[in-house]
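Researcher: We're teaching a course module on how sequence relates to structure. For the next exercise, students receive a sequence and then see the predicted structure as tokens, so they can try to spot secondary structure elements on their own. Here is the exercise chain.
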Amino acid sequence: MRKLLIGVAAVVGLLACIPLALLATGTIDSSSLRMILNVMAGLDGPPPNAAAIEQRFKLPQGFSLQLYASDLPKARFMRFTAGGDLLLSRPHSGDIMLLRRDADGDGHPDAVETVIDGLKRPLGIDLFGGYLYIAESNRIGRATFDSATGKLTGDYVPLVEGFTDNGTHWSKTLRFGPDGQLYLAQGTTCNVCVEEDARRNTLMRFRPDGSAGKIIATGLRNSVGFDWAPWSGELYATDNGRDLLGDDFPPCELNRIEEGRFYGWPYYNGDNVPDPDMGPDPLAAEREPTAPAHGFRAHNAPLGMTFVDTSGWPPGYEHAALVALHGSWNRSTPDGYKVVSLHWTDKGIEERDFLTGFNQDGDIRGRPVDVAQGPDGAIYISDDYAGAIYRVTYGARDTAWSPPASTPAASRLDPTPPDWLAGADLPAMAERGAALYGFHGCRSCHEEGENPKLLTRLQDRLGYNAVIDVLKAPQSPMPVFPLDEAQQRELAVFLLNRPD
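Model: And here is the predicted structure for the students to work with:
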């Protein structure tokens, strides 16, 4: 009886938090109410239905959608292993799952396994240098990981501890950059306030061993997703705008992150509009707010983002990223609930709808969280409301991704040195190539695990042109990496000139 009374009291308390605009307009239907309770109390949404998804979801012409996996409550962030398996974080379950690649071609993972559990609200995950890195709400940890087997091969060891995780935006996102360094984003404790912990509302950078932590950008209210543009190396991060200033203000943001910059929160919103609740910035004489590179609609809650390899896609996607809009929870008319594509053009960043149908006239069936591209080239989208993973392909649907039976072993040396070698700064190119080798987790397949594919004496078998050809069109299970021509050359220089 006592538990029942506590439950009733909790629901009454949650209902008291529902925005007055919704109550006044009488627009709360069962779908909206369930979604609000999902935000406030963790109530799961309705389970996905493959047939309904086919009918209600829409993509640009030529793209296809399938329900890849379901029964994954609170599915959040994803990373692919070199073996084609999908790692998935579930903060509210305290675990990291592994979805075995679809080797049998039935359109679904061959198995779903728990990699590690007993964690404290893990969100951000990444693979680097043979380790699986995990961002729990209060620390960063890692364990050696064999991508070939999809198993941890060592104990989970904390690297950086003592992060605060109180307040509303407790999650931590981590990702390794092209420089081989670990980047960590932390949200705020509140809607709008002055933080006691200077590490909150920032982006930080660490060495892979967790040392030399440094704040590189401030004023980021809740930057859950970030990635580097492959054509320029620029770092971009999504950011969730504050609440309680109406339906249409402030916009959520995409920021181009530069070291030392201040991005406005809590004193400015959107295009550096002063916040009405905070007053002047007391550090205005020392810093200027940096305006966003792009504005999303207010309360759309952009989360995970990834720059995609659009080889084989239709024209217009050459410089593009996909962003998951989790959707509003406190707006009189629900908005967001979709995946959008961002396009870098001569006129700026253009936003287009990519995957819609999660919300149909207030009937909410899903909330996209993260976007990842698999080694098969397909796009995978997590949905923490429906507990699902969706798979998007372009052209004819091809659900299977199988490594070839064998890899050609022919020697392909350069008959003459490539022209670009003349006058090249080989030590500098090799250094940048080493960073790329580390960033893309090449060690996990070529140096570590039970049966690594060793690259010893590579220079006796392959020349620069052959290595670059492999990088452009690798044999499975090696994924296609988003490398431009300069990066391909740098990686080739590193591989062919490093000591064995």
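Model: If you want an answer key for the exercise: Residues 89 and 96 are 5 Å apart (CA to CA). The mean pLDDT is 88.
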